[in-house]
Design brief:
The complex is a heterodimer of chains A (243) and B (500). Chain A is 69% helix and 0% strand. Chain A is mostly helical and 243 residues long. Chain A has one domain: Transmembrane di-heme cytochromes, Chain C (Fumarate Reductase Cytochrome B subunit, Up-down Bundle), CATH 1.20.950. Chain A is globular, with a radius of gyration of 22 Å. In chain B, 47% of the residues lie in helices and 4% in strands. Chain B is built from 21 helices and seven strands. In chain B, strand 6, helix 20 and strand 7 form a beta-alpha-beta unit. The chains are: A mainly alpha (243), B mainly alpha (500).
Chain lengths: 243, 500
């Protein structure tokens, strides 16, 4: 079977981006895991058990607990953005899995609403970033780039869903083909090509930018350590014991 | 006192987030460390010629040794949650005192030397060479951080600026750029045994004086033992307790509690300091050296229990780090936590009815409690999280009739720093200290106006020194500041029922 140059280019780019993403994230995780925590530094009051510390980390990951205490408006934007993003990603599993698991089937319609909410949340975060003098001062190109990237990914996605409507079977064929090494031609719809190009940029950018906060938060010692230094002796790996 | 020299923030009882005023605090700098202290501590006495390479090499070393630093360099998303949380930003309006902007001073150098994007793209990836200007910015703003961790509490990733400040200071020390107050203090603690540089006999004579004083006032022979082998309790307390006011009042309180409980105790002339400024400058070896004096004292005096006096950062070092640095404490009685805070000890005695307290002795006071940052956000008392808030308050309630808390956003883990922790209790930066205390003063002003508060109770030696110094600038009496055990000392009824 013959493939067009376009198909070959996009297929290779997709594998390249996925490889950079997986390799980059794994490298980060390995570096974080390998770097020792010499001292007990949880921000207290903190749970006194490892289980409690795990719950604390999850409360940050799932509910953004500390951000809630800090600033309700930022929290609102952050939580809506991240949950919408997650639901949109889960909806997209339909392109990678066959048959689609029933739990993901149930998420399909909510995924569409999330897709509509996502760019609105991005605009909200952008507005907040550009209207408060303190966040204007700290924001840089990278902060705007990440927001813009996700905004345009969501925008091109919605364009396909509600306006452009390329042939979905071709798209699924291409993506599922990549996932199962059973290749088929890339759809030539320009909006689709823009959409996946942006996604590939996001994937490759992720491990080398502030977006590593996603795996990084699990390694934050102030959140993941149990507050039990008197009960359980913590040892600094690189400092010998006194006698 | 030349009070007019400094611009003292106006007290309104409210904490308002100000607009930015760039470089507003850029001129405030700690003095450089004297040649002697740099030499003694093994640092170059002036900026070394290859300081850039040395600093970057140190940075690389610290990134490998501290997961906190490595992770915190990477994961900030600049959400802005910390921007209105630092007392130094709120009071100086200098945007580089926003925790994220302070950390950015280090992060931009991290990106330049330790990330691919930064190496290739430079400024476009927010990376910057370590230049003399950047180094000077470090010196300015990393000595305008009290390492109080208030930002860390509110950060969605728990990024702790204290860790970043410690690393930056360690890098600067390594290339010969040290600050006088913290390094002098570290040197005294290592060589003499306490931050104030007091030799044993000087401490002994203060203790003799206190014994006489209490005997005169109460007729009771309360002892202040030192270097007594085989005493049940070894008390490690900040050396300020031996001579500074109001610190000594709390020392009197501890002694009376021990006396009344009938528990034998001793101080150590060799380990006469609870404080550990090694922590502030991020030098693990100094921190360990300072703490190791306590291990020596334990081995020599063979106490059963280790009790710690009123001090904030010292309690962090003791509670969180001692077991790692100088543990395990196998020779101590495992029935008791090691170390145990004097507040835990007194609280326990109160609960068991072992102390007779006359609350009316403190009827002149309407007491409020200032949570010290390192106690609140970097340690614990008792068995459950938050005990560090409940136990001192319970002691206060047991010793006086009128207790009120300040605004809930300014107490417990949300407490505001006194403005002089982290090695900033230096005379030359009194301007910064007067400003930095502003959020706390607003909360105190509010509780004064609404409830007539007139006694500011706390359990930190640095806080005590700072508040007694800055209260007068705000028009308050320094006598309003005092330790929790000062209240205990006034309320405790000596004699009668002794022992437990």
């Amino acid at each position: 079977m013959e493939f067009s140059l376009l198909t070959i280019i996009f297929s290779l780019m997709a594998y390249g981006a996925a490889a950079v993403f997986v390799f980059g994230i794994l490298c980060r995780i390995m570096v974080y895991a390998k770097t020792p925590s010499p001292l007990k530094i949880p921000t207290t009051p903190a749970p006194t058990t490892s289980f409690g510390a795990g719950v604390r980390v999850l409360s940050e990951v799932l509910l953004f607990r500390s951000l809630y205490r800090s600033n309700k408006w930022t929290w609102l934007g952050g939580v809506v953005f991240h949950w919408a993003f997650l639901l949109v990603v889960l909806r997209h599993l339909r392109y990678f899995l066959y048959p689609l698991p029933s739990w993901d089937m149930k998420l399909q319609s909510i995924g569409i609403y999330a897709g509509i909410v996502l760019p609105i949340a991005v605009l909200y975060l952008l507005m907040r970033r550009t209207t408060v003098d303190r966040t204007v001062f700290i924001s840089s190109l990278a902060d705007y780039f990440a927001l813009a990237l996700i905004f345009f990914i969501a925008g091109t996605g919605l364009l396909m869903k509600f306006y452009e409507r390329p042939f979905m079977v071709d798209i699924k064929g291409f993506v599922y083909g990549l996932a199962t090494f059973n290749f088929s031609a890339v759809p030539t719809d320009p909006v689709f090509l823009a959409h996946i190009t942006l996604v590939m940029i996001l994937l490759a950018y992720f491990p080398y930018s502030k977006l590593v906060h996603a795996p990084g938060i699990f390694f934050s010692p102030t959140r993941n350590q149990a507050d039990n230094p008197r009960e359980k002796r913590h040892v600094t790996p690189w400092s010998p014991n006194l006698t | 006192m030349a009070k007019v020299k400094f611009e003292v923030p106006e007290l309104t009882g409210e904490i308002i987030v100000p607009g930015l005023k760039e470089d507003a605090a850029a001129a405030i700098k700690s003095h450089n460390a004297p040649v002697k202290d740099m030499t003694d501590l093994g640092f170059p006495t002036e900026l070394v010629p290859d300081w850039k390479e040395k600093a970057v090499a140190k940075f690389a070393e610290l990134l490998k040794k501290y997961r906190s630093l490595k992770v915190f360099m990477d994961i900030c998303v600049k959400c802005g949650a910390c921007t209105d949380k630092c007392h130094f930003y709120l009071s100086t309006k200098d945007p580089r005192n926003m925790p994220v902007a302070r950390a950015e001073l280090l992060r931009k150098v991290y990106r330049r030397y330790f990330t691919t994007a930064g190496k290739v793209l430079g400024k476009l990836a927010e990376a910057e060479d370590l230049t003399r200007e950047v180094l000077d910015e470090w010196y300015t703003y990393f000595y305008q951080c009290t390492e109080c961790r208030r930002c860390s509490l509110f950060c969605p990733y728990g990024i702790d600026t204290a860790e970043i400040t410690m690393a930056a200071r360690e890098m600067m020390d390594t290339v010969g750029l040290g600050a006088k107050y913290p390094l002098q203090t570290i040197n005294k603690a290592i060589t003499i045994g306490n931050n104030l540089g007091m030799p044993g006999p000087a401490i002994r004579s203060t203790l003799d004086f206190m014994e006489e004083d209490i005997k005169e006032q109460t007729g009771i022979p309360v002892k202040f033992p030192m270097d007594v082998k085989g005493a049940d309790v070894l008390l490690i307390t900040p050396s300020a307790d031996f001579f500074a006011t109001p610190h000594v009042e709390s020392l009197a309180g501890y002694a009376k509690v021990f006396h009344q409980a009938g528990i034998s105790w001793t101080l150590s002339s060799y380990a006469s300091e609870a404080g550990n400024f090694g922590m502030f400058n991020g030098n693990y070896e100094h921190m360990k050296k300072i703490a190791s004096r306590i291990k020596v004292a334990i081995n020599e005096l063979k106490p059963k229990r280790l009790i710690h006096g009123e001090c904030g950062h010292a309690w962090r070092a003791a509670y969180s780090f001692w077991n790692t640095l100088i543990g395990p404490f196998d020779s101590l009685d495992p029935k008791y936590p090691a170390p145990q805070h004097i507040c835990e000890f007194t609280y326990d005695l109160i609960n068991r009815g072992a102390l007779k307290l006359d609350k009316t002795a403190n009827d002149d006071f309407v007491v409020t409690f200032h949570d010290s940052c390192n106690v609140a956000r970097a340690s614990r008392m008792g068995n459950s999280p938050g005990g560090q808030f409940e136990i001192p308050r319970a002691i206060i309630r047991a010793t006086c009739n009128k207790f009120v808390d300040m605004h809930p956003d300014t107490i417990r883990e949300k407490t505001f720093c006194c403005g002089a922790g982290g090695g900033l209790l230096a005379d030359e930066i009194i301007d910064l200290r007067i400003k930095g205390v502003m959020p706390r003063m607003q909360a105190y002003k509010a509780i004064k106006d609404s409830h007539g508060a007139n006694f500011f109770a706390l359990i930190c030696a640095i806080c005590k020194a700072q508040f007694t110094k800055v209260f007068p600038y705000y028009g308050y009496e320094m006598e309003e500041v005092g330790g929790v055990h000062q209240l205990v000392s006034r309320a405790i009824v000596l004699g009668g029922k002794e022992g437990i």
